[in-house]
Structure formats: structure tokens, C-alpha cells
Specification:
It is built from 4 helices and 23 strands. It has helices at residues 2-31, 223-226, 240-251, 277-285, and strands at residues 46-48, 54-56, 65-68, 72-75, 78-81, 93-98, 104-107, 113-116, 120-125, 133-144, 153-157, 160-164, 168-173, 179-186, 189-193, 196-200, 204-209, 215-219, 232-239, 254-257, 266-272, 290-295, 298-303. By secondary structure, it is of the alpha+beta class.
Length: 304
């Protein structure tokens, strides 16, 4: 009997100790509150419907098939538009917005495939009615246009446009850059700028000055401008400033050049789109010409 009461006393003492300790921690927390740590949540890929409704597509990646308002189908993590599910005379449009650090793939109602790079936006009809197919792009996208001789496909970007019947090409048109580019992989395209036009053949690129609209045509290595859609970054003797501008969008970072001379350093490389920017930073630093310092999302660059 004495032993039992001794055990009860020990347990009671333990409970009192725990309660007392908890009270002290509670009181300390009230007197000296800890700073709140805000979680960094990447911005979502958004689909703006014609009704104005905005959908977050980032939480739909694991959904095999999902209908959105009976017109759009999400299949295997990509958007597919079926012309049979939309009225032929429909003039409704959708806008797909891709934030920094993301990219996306969709298929239009005519079967045209589009890959959208980071920090891009595209507006398009649910179904292409009439005698033309037209979309509006801001940012960068790679198109594989379904052939339709009766309906030319037009991409409007900045103050320019590209018109094709069926081909593969890349458009890069970021408002903050001094020029936009149209790079042809297959087929032929005609690019229009205020007051002039130009026909491109495979392996050619048209660069349009954002201010004057002046166009320059050159031969290029197409993979250097289209490999991003396959998750690779290929660059050849490209200024570090241009390279980092692309990586800023891919990884949602902020680049600060502490040495202006570092901007003009030319580098070549072929790398995979890693999930962690620190791996890319190490590869670029292997050149021995530049040094990177990463502080949160800020990247400081100096010359060696």
C-alpha cells in the first residue's frame, strides 16, 4: 500500500512539473513573442476564363481528366481544348498566365501545341472560328502549328506578328527587353512589323527592334533558342547579362551585378534545368571568370 501511494505521488509531482514548465513557456512567449516566419509560396499558373473566373492550375497536376465549365479539359497536367465541346461560333477567349519559375504546355482546339516559358502570357479563343486563327503572346512560347491551308495561324506579339499555315517556331517577346525574336525550326513563316515584312526559312531568325520596329534577319543554331521547352538551357558566346535575365525568370531570383564588367563576359554552355539554382550557379562559376554570392533570392555577381 505504501508503494502504491509512493507511485501516485511521483506521477502527481511529474504532472505538476509539466504544468509548471508549460506555464513558464507560455508566459515567456507572451512577454517575448517570436517573430513570424512567412512561408515563400511560388506563384501559381493561372487560367483566366472568359467569365472572369480565375483557376489555379498548380493544384491540378495529379488530376487525370477534369472538365472546366464543360469546355476545357485538363489531361496529364496540360490543357487540351476540344472543338467538339465548344460552339463553332464561340468568340470566348481564355488567358493562360505563367509566373516566373514555371512553364506550361497546352493544346488548342485545332491541335496546335504550345509550350510557354516562364513569365509569359497568352490569350486565345476556345475554338478558332471564321477563316483565321489568332493568338496574342507576351513572353516566350514555342509553337507546333497544326496545318490548315484555309486558316492561317497568327501570333501577335509586341507591335509585330507572325503568320503561318503549319510549322514549328519560337517567339521571344518580353516587354522589358530591347528586341523580340522569331526563330524558325520547320516550314516557313512571314513576320510583319510596322511598315515591313520578312519571310523566314528554317534556321533563320528575325530580330525586331522594340522601339523602331526595324527587322534584322540572321542564321542561327535553332536549338540555342528552342531547347528550353525540353528543359535545357543552351547558350553560345552569350553575354552574362542576357544569360542571367533568362535565369531570373526560370528560378524567380533577382540578379545584382556588383561589377558592371561582369555583364559583358561571354559564356557558352548546355545545362539541364535544375530544381535548385545553386547547382546552376556552381556550373557557371566553373568558368573562373565570375563569382556568385547567393543570399536568399538575391544573386550578387562580381568578376574574379
Amino acid at each position: 500500500r505504501t508503494y502504491i501511494w509512493w507511485r501516485v505521488g511521483v506521477v502527481a509531482a511529474g504532472i505538476c512539473l509539466l504544468l509548471g514548465t508549460g506555464w513558464l513557456f507560455y508566459r515567456q512567449a507572451r512577454l517575448f513573442p517570436q517573430p513570424e516566419i512567412a512561408a515563400t509560396v511560388p506563384e501559381a499558373v493561372r487560367l483566366v476564363l472568359s467569365s472572369g473566373r480565375i483557376l489555379d492550375l498548380s493544384d491540378c497536376e495529379n488530376v487525370d481528366v477534369r472538365e472546366i465549365e464543360g469546355k476545357v479539359i485538363l489531361h496529364n497536367g496540360q490543357l487540351e481544348y476540344c472543338s467538339d465541346s465548344v460552339k463553332r461560333n464561340s468568340e470566348e477567349t481564355n488567358t493562360l498566365i505563367i509566373p516566373k519559375g514555371a512553364f506550361y504546355h497546352l493544346i488548342f482546339s485545332d491541335g496546335t501545341k504550345v509550350w510557354l516559358n516562364s513569365d509569359s502570357k497568352i490569350t486565345y479563343p476556345l475554338v478558332f472560328s471564321g477563316n483565321a486563327r489568332k493568338v496574342i503572346l507576351t513572353g516566350e512560347a514555342y509553337f507546333e502549328v497544326a496545318k490548315d491551308a484555309k486558316k492561317p495561324f497568327t501570333v501577335q506579339f509586341m507591335s509585330s506578328s507572325v503568320t503561318v499555315l503549319g510549322t514549328s517556331f519560337n517567339i521571344r517577346a518580353y516587354p522589358e527587353e530591347k528586341q523580340s525574336q522569331a526563330t524558325l525550326a520547320e516550314g516557313s513563316v512571314r513576320i510583319y512589323s510596322p511598315g515591313s515584312s520578312m519571310l523566314l526559312k528554317p534556321g533563320e531568325q528575325a530580330e525586331v527592334n522594340a522601339l523602331s520596329g526595324e527587322m534584322v534577319k540572321r542564321e542561327v543554331e535553332v536549338k540555342s533558342f528552342t531547347s528550353w521547352k525540353d528543359g535545357r538551357f543552351v547558350f553560345e558566346q552569350q553575354p552574362l547579362e542576357d544569360i542571367m535575365r533568362t535565369l531570373e525568370r526560370w528560378y524567380d531570383i533577382r540578379v545584382i551585378f556588383k561589377d558592371e564588367g561582369a555583364k559583358r563576359i561571354s559564356l557558352s554552355g548546355n545545362m539541364t534545368r535544375y530544381g535548385d539554382f545553386s547547382q546552376v550557379m556552381k556550373m557557371l562559376q566553373m568558368t573562373g571568370d565570375v563569382r556568385f554570392e547567393l543570399h536568399g533570392n538575391d544573386v550578387y555577381i562580381t568578376t574574379e
